[in-house]
Amino acid sequence: MKRHLLIGDVHGCREDLEQLLERLRYDPAGDVLVLLGDLVNRGPDSAGVLRLARRLDARCVLGNHDVRLLRVAHGRTPPRSYDTTDDVLAAADREELIEWLGAQPFVREFGSLLCVHAGLHPHWEHPEAILSGLNPLEETPELSFAVTVRTCTAQGERPARESGLIEGPYRAWYEFWRERAQETRTVAFGHWAVHGLVWLPRVRGLDTGCAWGGKLSGWIVEEDRLVQVDKR
Ligand SMILES: [Mn+2]
Question: Are 122 and 172 in contact (CB under 8 A)?
């Protein structure tokens, strides 16, 4: 049976990704590998993660760190001193890696499953239409929301500064998704390591902080089963 394997934020942790693929018994002939964004930065081997993902024909959605790397690589923004993506920028195969990453979308649909890095705006009736075709090099409110949101109001207003906690008038963005009476699709996302695993009806949050010494999480959709590895 064809399986969809969804994996949370890898953040340059190639060894942990390899270990998780082993534990998932990943079969390149039959399985579809989906990475929920932020493949790069923080961890030690961003280039290795990109090479592996490209070789395995992983389907990714872009995260905020992926977008930043693309903008740095294209000279649109200067690197930050604490970024750990120099290995990609200095790689002999840099052009292939950047081109492959830059071709990844911000949202993917697999049947009744939607994948996005951070979250979806409460007003977006058809997120896949709003987010498809966005250029990662051009900042737009929609792009920014999809790759960075954690909490918002029912109108999609966000706190001036996000602490990672759910505070004040703001709620987790996915609560508004859950309240959609007619909605039958499930959303899978990453980006919220502080919040950790989210396992609710029609919502799966899979960033469990591998880069911070936590776990790397995989969800086998067809079995509705969680598989995790501890950070090495
Ligand atoms: Mn992120």
Answer: no
Q: Which CATH architecture is the domain 4-230 placed in?
A: 4-Layer Sandwich (3.60)
- Domain boundary assignment for the chain: 4-230
pLDDT band at 232 (very low <50, low <70, confident <90, very high): confident
In the structure, ligand 1 is a single-atom ion and the residues with CB under 5 Å from it are 38, 63-64, 191
Q: pLDDT tens-digit profile of 63-79?
A: 999 999 999 999 999 98
Alpha-carbon distance of 127 to 119, in angstroms, equals 10
- What's the CA-to-centroid distance between 222 and ligand 1, angstroms? 25
Pair of tokens at residue 25: 């018994």
Contact 30, 3 (CB under 8 A): yes
CA–centroid distance, residue 1 to ligand 1 (Å): 31
pTM > 0.70: yes or no: yes
Distance from Cα 118 to the centre of ligand 1, integer Å? 6
∠ Cα 20 62 85 (to 5°): 75
Contact 174, 158 (CB under 8 A): no
Helices and strands per DSSP (H, E), number in the chain? 8, 12
> Is 163 in a helix, a strand, or coil?
coil
Is residue 3 classed exposed, middle or buried when 0-12, 13-18 and 19+ CB atoms within 10 A define those classes?
middle
Q: Distance between CA 25 and CA 210 in Å, rounded? A: 20
